[in-house]
Write a structure and sequence with these properties.
Layout lengths: L12 E4 L6 E4 L15 E13 L4 H9 L9 H9 L2 E6 L5 H7 L10 E10 L3 E5 L4 E6 L8 E16 L5 E20 L5 E11 L5 E5 L4 E6 L7 H5 L1 E3 L5 E19 L4
Antiparallel strand pairs: 1-6, 2-14, 3-5, 3-14, 4-12, 6-8, 7-8, 8-9, 9-10, 9-11, 12-14, 13-14
């Protein structure tokens, strides 16, 4: 499915990564290094993404939900404040989700907390990335971006979080999340890849929100939680993590729960 095609399924994610060799996946335990320094290998990161959609919460309910996630140790205080100003929040949980979050994925009969939950497994190659469309596609939107005094007009708008991953020492993976606004017609463009090379792609215009980007380190089975900040109901967070009626009324709140499943190694498949 194309990177920025209008037919991308709502809540979808599309992975990509460039390479000149023909690759095959070799399953290895997390943290195992290539057997020979002369081997050309690439790490492959496996994630499960849960897109949760539920009725909007009042402040008390939202605070109770987010108190179950570690919002303090996930990102630096300055970046946390920047996210809060625009109505976004990022939290962390270990292998076992707290009950407040786990029941969103495994609701008991009759609780009625969940309107919808969709899960998707994605793979991100070393040097590659994946796009998570977290918000709805809108015909037009007036948005105030970080640092802008006045709202900007956008057409054919999509709200996307770009995901990248990089292996660190031992059992640690650095995950980068970058909110982006995709807008306008789909045309051919020259864009830089993660290695600094230029390539031609078919896409919309992209406005990366670097002031809201997050980097955090995970080990296998750790979770990241993304959504609207419990104490801020307006701002960009509303657009990235809500569902709307045609007249702009919020009908549901969206939460993204990202789980690092593990890391494998790709080796080039050569033919004699």
């Amino acid at each position: 499915m194309g990177k920025d095609g209008f037919l991308q399924r709502l809540f979808g994610g599309s992975s990509r990564g460039e390479g000149r060799a023909s690759w095959r996946m070799v399953s290895k335990p997390f943290g195992e290094l290539p057997r020979s320094d002369s081997e050309v290998t690439r790490d492959v990161f496996r994630f499960t993404v849960h897109f949760v959609e539920r009725a909007p919460l009042d402040v008390t309910e939202a605070e109770a939900l987010w108190s179950a996630a570690d919002m303090i140790g996930t990102v630096a205080a300055e970046r946390r404040a920047a996210l809060q100003r625009v109505g976004m929040a990022v939290g962390h949980s270990g292998r076992q989700l707290p009950p407040e979050l786990d029941r969103l994925l495994h609701p008991s009969p009759g609780i009625g907390l969940l309107a919808n939950c969709r899960s998707q497994r994605i793979t991100v190659l070393e040097g590659g990335e994946s796009e998570l469309q977290t918000g709805p596609m809108l015909k037009t939107a007036e948005l105030i971006l970080p640092g802008d005094p006045e709202p900007r007009h956008f057409e054919a708008v999509r709200f996307v979080v770009r995901l990248r991953a990089k292996r660190l020492e031992e059992d640690w993976v650095r995950v980068t999340l970058l909110p982006e606004i995709h807008h306008g017609p789909v045309v051919q463009r020259h864009v830089p890849d993660t290695h600094g090379n230029w390539r031609i792609t078919t896409s919309q215009s992209v406005v990366p929100l670097y002031a809201l980007g997050v980097q955090t380190d995970l080990t296998p089975s750790d979770h990241l939680i993304l959504g609207r900040h419990p104490n801020r109901t307006d701002g960009l967070g509303k657009w990235f993590f809500s569902a709307f009626t045609e007249d702009g009324l919020v009908t549901a709140e969206r939460l993204v729960i990202l789980r690092l499943d593990g890391v494998g190694v790709l080796r080039p498949a050569y033919r004699e």
